[in-house]
Amino acid sequence: MTCGVADLVRAWRTQAAELRELAAEPQAVALERCAGQREAALIAAADEVLTLPEAVRASGYSDRQLRAMLADGRLTDVGRKRAPRIRRGELPHKAPPARGIAARTGAPYDIGAADAAVNSSANSRPGQR
After folding, report:
1. Contact 94, 55 (CB under 8 A)
2. pLDDT computed for residue 31 by the predictor
3. CB–CB of 66/55 below 8 Å?
4. 3-state secondary structure of 47
5. Which pLDDT score, from 0 to 100, does residue 2 have?
6. Between the CA of residue 53 and those of 20, 44, 59, 61, what are the distances in Å?
7. Beta bridge partners of 50
8. What is the C-alpha radius of gyration for the chain, rounded to an integer number of angstroms?
9. What does DSSP assign to residue 90?
């Protein structure tokens, strides 16, 4: 199960409401304070302005790909002429490259299929049980 940071902030606020119903006001206030601080940090991070090399590292896209996105308007250039800048919150992100079997076959690893293959090859060897 994956949980994004925004989901975590929402969960903290829900838990704070539940704590209030249980008359645990100090704990609810502390949880809401944590949620507010984390939300403020998320907003500040999204507003951070990156140079093109920083944006390349943060997004996984190449310099050329990001420049093309700036040129066709998919990204907003918040810099000045000949010095492009991109807001971190606007950056697209590439999925990390697949590793292992998924990288070679393009399919996710299926443990059931792997077990079946091992069992069938073991059963097909003469003289072995």
Report:
1. no
2. 94
3. yes
4. helix
5. 45
6. 47, 20, 10, 10
7. 86
8. 25
9. G
